[in-house]
Amino acid sequence: MSELRKNILDEARRVVVKIGSRILVDSERGGVRTRYIQKLADSVARLMDAGKEVVIVTSGAVGTGMAELGYKQKPTVLAEKQACAAVGQIDLMYAYREMFRWVQLSVGQILLSAEDFRDRARYKNLQNTIKAMLARKIVPIINENDSLAVAEIKVGDNDKLSSDVALFLDADLLLIFTDEDGLFDDNPKKNPNARLLNFVPEITPAILALAGKPGEAGSAVSTGGMRSKLEAIRNVTKSGANAFLASGMKVLPHQVFFENATGTLFAGSKKKLNSRQRWLSFITTPRGSVIVDEGGVKALREKHSSLLPVGVVAVQKHFDKGDLIEVLDEKKNPVARGVAGFDSETLKLVLRKKTAQVHEILGKNVPDELIHKNDLVVF
Fold first, then answer.
1. Per the structure, how many domains does the chain have?
2. Domain that holds residue 152
3. Model pTM?
């Protein structure tokens, strides 16, 4: 084990562990891999004995329900998929509870949606709940609320959810288990000579390209592919935390820390973001977006100014005052994120208008800025 890796892992106190569906669900016979969860529980107990705090982000509810309801492939009809999640969540959590009891650990289930991250009050309450659980040595088992989630309130896949959880808990390490040994310099399924990358100092566009195209995904029971995992890891490392990618088929969490297990370590940025910056930049899903002209982009990036209506040329999707929105340039490239000072319908009335004109149209009680610079993060 390299000295750098040893130092990073030794110093990591709070760890978020993401377990994928392919590891948790027996795709051939169906149902939860209870024996795996038993091994996982023992591994987590070893980490906690060593002073680590562990949070688990689990997949597997839909896949488990598919087996119970007789589906061979993930259903495409939303209501059927949600029915699978509702049925599967019971069996999945029962397996976690029973297996963790063998090692004298309690678990608690938390089901989330994007709304829990968008709303700052709910976000803070969620932080407090999980921190209270960790203080009592209860292992939080987190999943998206797939039995109710629709596109507008979904976090995304559980790779995104795991990075969100790591960010809002200010975790030191995100540990993602997949069906590969880590990140390779080529597709190991197609190239037997592909080389495992043991250490990645930064996720550059070239590194991200190694994972294939966006949307490439997995199997009959899984959602995210390698691309989604790297995007999740990129968010975490940009905030200043570290990440590790390993095969859940071969490696257990304690082996990453204590036995030099095979995998890829991703180094966090030396510039750590504070809680609000993380929330604005990565954690929550924007409600809508605005498109700004070239002058607006320049003002944001070079002058670090607030975003005024005069620079906005178009509005995409509905959003309310106080919602997080995304700022795009005229080629639809992301420029910034921030909290809207007024809603999308009001904004449409004052597109490209100077501040004096805005107040003539809307009155004196509206803010000058669509997004104040204190509520803005520029990429």
1. 2
2. 3-278
3. 0.84
Pick 110 or 212 by higher pLDDT. 110
Residues in the chain: 379
Q: What percentage of the chain has pLDDT greater than the value 70?
A: 94
Domain of 197: which CATH number?
Answer: 3.40.1160.10
Quick one: which H or E segment has residue 270?
A: none
My answer on whether 26 and 143 are in the same domain is yes
**Neighbouring C-beta atoms of residue 129, cutoff 10 Å:** 13
**At 368, phi and psi to the nearest 5?**
-70, -35
Paired tokens of 343: 């809603």
Instruction: State whether 272 and 322 are in the same domain.
Output: no
Last residue of a domain, one of 236, 252, 278: 278
pLDDT at position 146: 65
At residue 82, what is the residue type?
A: Q
CA distance 342 to 362: 11
13 is written with which tokens? Answer: 């106190």
Q: Which residues pair with 149 in a beta bridge?
A: none
Give the whole-angstrom CA distance, residue 125 versus residue 140: 15
**pLDDT reading at 221 higher than 80:** no
**Rounded average pLDDT over 248-252:** 96
Q: Please tell me whether residues 333 and 192 are part of one structural domain.
A: no
How far, in whole angstroms, is CA 7 from its chain's centroid?
25
Among 234, 256, 278, the domain-final residue is 278
With 80 as the cut, is the pLDDT of residue 27 above it?
no
pLDDT of the residue at 357:
96
